Structure formats: structure tokens, C-alpha cells
Amino acid sequence: MRVLIIIPAFNEEQSIRLVIGELERACGYADILVVDDGSADSTAALAEAAGVAVLRLPYNLGVGGAMRAGYRYALERGYDVALQVDADGQHDTRYIGKLVAAVESADIVIGSRFAGAGTYTSAKFARRLAMRLLAMVVSGLARTKLTDVTSGFRAANRKAMAIFAVHYPVEYLGDTVESLVIAVRSGCVIRQIPVKMRPREYGTASQSSLRALVYLVRAGVALGLALIRRWEPVSAAEVPERAGV
Amino acid sequence: MSVYMLGLVGAVVTVSIVFEMLRRRKLREKYATFWVLLAGVIVVIALFPDVLAGAAAMLGVQVPANLLFFLGSLVLLGVNVQLSSELGRLEERTRTLAEEVALLRLSSREHR
């Protein structure tokens, strides 16, 4: 089974080498693709020097754009599983094997921060409320309990990859929540496994109350749009066969 | 100068600007057609104010100018929504191109 780890990276020159090094040690069986999302710093050059494949987007598209490019690459090159891992080192590499294993029984597997392992507390009430509401609605759609639909730590099989290579929104929360809604509405099975997050090594998460409230409102809008939008369905016939096996 | 004369002058200015922009290839026909048609409507209203007054009376609008303002804002709103959607489509296209460029750049690098 061929596994690709996709790392969307925007100005992550401080952490990208550490993350690549750690992934290579922890998951030698997987290939690594860094999608440089129009960084102004030396992220792409450092990743190339580290010997991994690098997609250099000519300008910043946001996580959604970077991931769609990554899924297109994974699909074209015939990978069986594509994993998304953040470039800031928050995602613990020990869980990657579990995510890959879980893809056997689902199309998408989410590494959930709120499913028991470890304690991840997002400070503001409004933000927690928003995340809880989003999780409830998407769980209902997916007919399974999902506790963390904004997690960027996830694995996808070829069926999900084919959908994401065409539909992966760049809008706010599109890369997490809306992409899940699209996958569910396209008939994908979603599962979650508990993961522990590491504290951020660089940068800080947004924490002000106003921001959290804005987050709540925007999350509601994003979810509402996700539920009513129409897409051209990706038929199974369009999914390319696995190459080279 | 009556308000209708003002409308006439506005229409003529609009048509000349659109014409000049077309000549300099700064404007594509598909947008120009719309503005010229709109200017044409303004000319008709300026030359025959009774058309507007008649329409207002028919619709029960007491002050004809109000009908003009209402229709004018409606048209401008429509144009703005149309342009926003066009812009969104263009963004989606440049996004696809950006991804394509990145994928091609990587494969050309691998083949070197």
C-alpha cells in the first residue's frame, strides 16, 4: 500500500525541516509531499533540500487550495492513502500509522482531539460552542459520532481523494468542515480515532473573545452554505485506476 | 437646463466613453453592448419624457423620477452581482491554473 503524507506549508521555515525529519523517522514507508502555499520565506527550498517532493504554488491559495493540489498529485501518482499533516509540528507522528490502518474500514479518517486521548482545550467558550455545533451537525449527516470536524489531521482513501481532487473549497472552514460535508454527500464513510495534539512550537492560536465570536458566526455561515451548495458529482468512472500496481 | 437634457448629456458621454474604450481595446464587446443599450434607454427617456411618465402612471408611481431611481438602482445592483459572480469564476480558474503550474513545475524538476 502506497501512502502519501501531504504537508500544506505557508511560511513555515522554522519548523518544516523538523517536521519532515520526524516524519521520515516515524513513517519510513510513506512518501512526503510538501505543498508550499506561496511562502515568502525559504520553506520550499528547505523542503527540497530535505529531499521530499515539493509543489510550489505561485501565490497563496489557503489550506484548501494547497490540499486540493496535494490530492491531485496523490491521485495522479496512484497513491492508496493520502494523509494531511500540519507543518507546524502540532500533529503527533505516532498516530499516523493508526490513521492509515483505520482507512481500511472507512473512506476518511479524522484524528480527533476531543475523543478521549490527551487534553486539548480551546480557550474561548464561543469557539468551543462553534466547534461542538459543527461536530453535531456533521455527525448527524455522517451517521457516526464525530467530535472534531475542524481537525486538519486526517487520512483519505482513493475514493475520497478523487472527490477532494475536484472539490476542495478554499473558503473559510472549507478545508475542514465543508470538505467533510461534500465527502458525506458524495457517499463517503467517515470515522474518527482519538489523537493527542502537541502544543504549538511556533506561532500562537487566535484567542480573543471577539475573534471567537466571529468564528462562531462564520462557522455557521460556512456550514449553512456547505449544506445547500450543489456540486457536479464525481462519478466512480472518472476515478483513475491505481497506476503502477 | 431640464433634467431630461441632463439625461441626454449623460447618455452621450456614456456612449462616447464606451466607444473610445472599445477602440482602445480596454473593454470587451460583451460588456460594452450592455452599457450602450442602457445609454440608448436613457436617450429615449430624455427625448420622450412621456414614456417615463406613462410607465409611472401605469404602475401607480406618483413621481416619475422615483421610478427612474428605482429601476436605476436595480440595474446597478444586477450588474454588481453579475460582476461578483464573474470574479468568483475567474478566481476559481486562476486557482486551477496555479495548481496546474505547481504540478507541472514539480514534474519538470523530476525529469531534469
From TrEMBL, chain A:
Family annotation (InterPro entries): Glyco_trans_2-like (IPR001173), Glycosyltransferase_2 (IPR050256), Nucleotide-diphossugar_trans (IPR029044)
Keywords carried by this UniProt record: Transferase
Source taxon at top rank: Bacteria
Pfam families referenced in this protein's UniProt entry, alphabetically: Glycos_transf_2 (PF00535)
Presence of keyword Transferase: yes
Single Gene Ontology MF annotation: transferase activity
Positions of the Glycosyltransferase 2-like domain: 5-160
Membership in a protein family: Belongs to the glycosyltransferase 2 family.
Entry protein name: Glycosyltransferase involved in cell wall biosynthesis
UniProtKB/TrEMBL annotation, chain B:
Keywords: Membrane, Transmembrane, Transmembrane helix
Domain of life: Bacteria
Pfam short name (any one): DUF2304
Transmembrane parts of this sequence: 6-22, 34-59, 65-83
Name of the molecule in the record: DUF2304 domain-containing protein
